[in-house]
Structure formats: C-alpha cells, structure tokens
Amino acid sequence: MTAALNLTPSNQDFAALDQAHALHPWTHFASQAQEPPLVITEGNGCRVTDSSGRSYLDAVGGVWCTNIGLGRREMAEAIGAQALRLAYANPFVDMTSDPAALLAAKLAELAPGDLNRVHFTTGGSTAVDTAVRMVSYYHHARGNPGKTDIVSRENSYHGSTYLTQSVGKRSGDRVDEFRYKTEGIHHLSCPNPYRRPAHLTEAQFCDELVAEFEALIARVGADRIGGFIAEPIQASGGIIIPPEGYLRRMWAVCQRHDILFIADEVVTGFGRIGHWFAALAEFGVQPDMITCAKGLTSGYIPLGALIYSDRIHAAMAGGASGWFTSGFTYSGHPVACAAGLKNIEIIAREDLLSHATRVGLYFEERLKALAPLALVGDVRGKKLMLCVENVANKETKALLPDEAGESKRISNACEEMGLLVRPIGHLNVMSPPLTITEGEVDFIVETLEKAITRVTDDLVREGFRIG
Length: 467
Hints:
The structure is a single chain. The protein has about 475 residues and is an alpha/beta fold. The protein is about 40% helix and about 15% strand. The protein has 2 domains: about 40-70 and about 350-460, Aspartate Aminotransferase, domain 1 (Alpha-Beta Complex), CATH 3.90.1150; about 75-350, Type I PLP-dependent aspartate aminotransferase-like (Major domain) (Aspartate Aminotransferase, domain 2, 3-Layer(aba) Sandwich), CATH 3.40.640.10. The chain has 15 helices and 15 strands. Strands 4-10-9-8-7-5-6 form a 7-stranded mixed beta sheet, sandwiched between helices. The chain has a 4-stranded mixed beta sheet with strand order 1-2-3-13. A 4-stranded antiparallel beta sheet has the order 11-12-15-14, with helices on one face. It starts with 13 loop residues before the first helix and ends in a 6-residue tail after the last helix.
C-alpha cells in the first residue's frame, strides 16, 4: 500500500510515482522504465509549466485539443457553478439536463445541412464507435440488414476502442499482442500526395484513389457497404491533406451507392483549420454524420458527440418498437456540456476562427523555411495543423531506420529549449491553441530549425547517411 501523499507544489516525486503506478496511453515499456515522464503542473494560454518550474510553449495543444488555451477563469467558473448546481443527471431513455439540451441545440446550429441530431459520448473514440454502429442500425431500419461494412483508409486514426482501432489503420497502432476486427472493415489507400507514385500527377493520383473505391464497391457489393469514414485531414496518420477534389469525389461515390459519409472531425472541428467544422466549409462535402470531441470543450472536460442527419434519425425512429441500445453513463454529462457551451461562447466572442485562419496561414508560410534543411522531406498541413516529415534522402524520400529515432530526438532538443512538439513516427507534429500569436509561431519555427540542425549533425556523426 502506498503511503499517504503530500501533493504540494514542492513535492518532486510525481515522476517516480507515475513510473511506479501509471500505465499511459501508448506506453512504450522500455522507454517508460528508463525515462521519467515530463510532469506538467500548470498551464496558462499556450504555455505549460513542469514540476520543476520550467515553462514551455505547447505547440502540440495538449493532444490537438486545448483550442481556447489553458487557465481560462471563466471556464473554471462555468464548470464549478454547474458542478454545484447539478453535478450529474441520468442521460438514459427519457431524462436529460438543461446543459445537455442546450449544447445539443447549439451543435445542431453549428453543423452543416440537416445534421440536427446529437448523441453525446465520452470522447472521440466513443463517438466514432457509435457512428459505426449507427450505420448498421440505419440500414437495417430501412430494410437492408446486410449493409453493414465500413470503408476506411490506410494511415487513418479513428480511436482506441476495439472497434475504432480496427476501423483506423496506422502501422504503429497495430501490435501482435492485440487482436483487431477484420470482417466487414475495408481499407483503401492513404491519399497522401507526398507519397504518391512518382509517375502520377496529383490529379492522376486522385483519379486512381476514386477508382480504387469504385472497384472495392464492385467487388464487395454496394448491398454490403454501409459507411465510409474519413478525417478531412488525416491527423495522427501524418497530417495528410488529400488531393484537390478527392473528398468531394469520394462523397459523390457514396451518394450514388447509398453509403453514409462519416466525417471524423475530432481534430478538425472547432477551429483547428478555421471553421466550426471542415468537411463542408473547407472541402465541399455535406456529410451524413460528424464525430467530434477534443476542441468541443478545449480539453477542459472529457466530452464527445456524434452529430447526424434528420434523415438518419427519421429512418431509425420509424419502427415503433425500436431501441437504440448504445450510450454511456457519462453521455451528456451536465458539467461537460456546460464546459462545451462556454467553450463555444469564447470561440465565437473572441472570433478565434478568424484568428486561427490568419495566424495559421502565417504559420504555414513560416514553416516552409525549414524545407531546405537536409533532414526535411516535406513540410505540410493547413493553418494550425502542421507537420515536418523527416527523411534520409530528399530525392528518393527514403526514411531513416527506426533506430535513428530522429523525430523523438528533435522533440527532446525542442523541449530543452522550451518548446513542445509531438514526435509521431518520422514526423514532428504541431497543433497549437487557436490563441497562438505570430510571435509565438516565430519562436516555434526558429526553435525547431535549431533542433533539426542539431539532430542532423548528431546523426551524421553517428554514421547515418543523410542526403
């Protein structure tokens, strides 16, 4: 049994306690045993402070989620006031709370088209899980019980439940120790223009991707495929912005074959690229469902939502004896919904969508300065969702061996200089709060350049060939 803890700001044992007792998401066991975690104890705006008092600019935005920035007093007051007034309400069957009803109405107002129905969840994974299950329910209700298969893409990420990790498919997420659902789930090629076949133009690449989808439908049968799920920009899969027109053409294929289009906007929603939601505003696609979380509360309280169309709801509700048997104890949690309402109010009042667009475009332009560096193969992204892909050879786009660990080395070097960026495979990813300033963007780019240069020199000295 652990002795009573003195959890005061002067206590520096947090890292040891964490190593002794906590299992983190995506724990790498060897690293966890050797390297103490960075213990964050405070946050304000775009900055966080660790247990030793060091301050960092958090260019990761938590995990794509601290959209309005940390330390907002009015958020804390809204959360506290709701907890005192009504800390919990049963969300099942025929009960709700006033914050849940208000937030559902607000999301219906913000979502495009006839997406006027909302099912609250605990986060992004459970929102996607619900969406995939709703595909089956909807088609069954319309007399097509076999139309249950889901189509996704390589290098997609849709969550970490058993079902959603099966729907997503990043190589780094698939381990031998786990099993994944394969029946009824299909994966198309990743629409990554940077990694397209060398003999294809981007337009030709797009043609091939759409043709691949059509061929899958012909092979499997439109009577079996019920839904297609896509992140407007593949986030953890590498900040993949698809070729021009790709998403709209894929949506058109769905329309022709009665396949529901699910836009996974867990990352792109609530301002990350300057819109409440990106599918229609940025890519011209009217989805049948939108999944969201993260920026919905800016990370202050866990909350997710599936927003879906009136048409889907009417079909599901058509059977007098039907029950939608999916939901969670914390669906529509009143404190979380109060946080969501206040978060949306702040984004609107401070016009953070426009700010994210303006500063995001500046960030895109500034980050291009890293392109000439020997280790940098690609600089890509949109507005406040950006990354640098590291390569061994710019011409062939060959990657360094995994043991080089260049992206983690770069993030470590940045951390030493007061900057947090996220290493994912051979990428360094950035998704700062929407409140970030141009001056802070300059610091990110200048620090990242120093880190990449330093790591490149170290790798060359160690015998890795670059260039």
